[in-house]
Amino acid sequence: MPYMDGLTCLQRIREKHTGTKVLILTAYDDGQTLQSVMAARADGLVLKTDPPERTVNAIRQAADGQLVFPAAARRWLYDGRDAEPAALSEREIEVLSLVAEGMGNAEVALRLHISENTVKFHLRNIYRRLDVSNRTEASRKFLERYT
Fold first, then answer.
1. Do 95 and 120 meet the contact criterion of CB atoms below 8 Å apart?
2. Does residue 94 share a domain with residue 53?
3. How many other C-beta atoms lie within 10 A of the C-beta of residue 80?
4. Which residue range is the domain that position 32 belongs to?
5. Cβ atoms within 10 A of the Cβ of 17, count?
6. Tens digits of per-residue pLDDT, 1-46?
7. Closest CA relative to residue 9, chosen from 48, 46, 41
8. 125 lies in some domain
9. Domain final residue pick, 79, 103, 121
10. Given 3-state DSSP classes, what are the helix, strand and coil percentages for the chain, each rounded to the nearest 5?
């Protein structure tokens, strides 16, 4: 959003339109983001990587007065911690296997029929989950764990 961040926007909506339902659409699924969204009194959070059907269902649920959060967020809440990194998703494994073969982001995107931004998003999650900071470290861990 070019003029303000989503949480500031949510705060202003809450100040002026108390009955408005607000569902946050984000690329971030970490505990800090969840905590911020909840503290700002959002009616839910949907991940940009979720299938469109899940997003549509979340909109309907929020409109019906339900709090809507992804399964990963519910696990974080129930565990009360942002603990050990979760296992990689099937898509993350696909991305990382191609990176481990030496492909660049554009090649991975072309092969998987996704955008380069989506590849970058997956790589950020992979790095966080594997506790690494670059492609080489991630590839090494992939080869150790998944081959």
1. no
2. no
3. 8
4. 6-79
5. 10
6. 777 888 888 888 988 887 899 999 888 777 677 777 777 888 888 8
7. 41
8. yes
9. 79
10. 60, 5, 35
Whether 85 maps to a domain, the answer reads no
Element (H, E) at 47: strand 44-47
- pLDDT tens digit sequence for 86-96: 578 888 888 99
Both structure tokens of 114: 């996704």
Nearest alpha-carbon partner for 40 in 22, 28, 60: 22
Assessment of whether the complete model's pTM goes beyond 0.70:
no
Q: Which of 55, 79, 103 is the last residue of a domain?
A: 79
Question: How is residue 38 written in tokens?
Answer: 């909840």
Question: Which residues sit opposite 23 in a β-bridge?
Answer: 44
32 within a domain of the structure (yes/no): yes
CATH code: domain of residue 133 = 1.10.10.10
Q: How far is CA 51 from CA 47, 54, 139, in A?
A: 9, 5, 27
24: in domain: yes
What are 11-20's contacts with CB under 8 Å, separation 24+? 11/40, 14/40, 14/41
Q: How many domains would you assign to the chain?
A: 2
User: HSE-up of 138 (CA within 13 Å, CB side)?
Assistant: 25
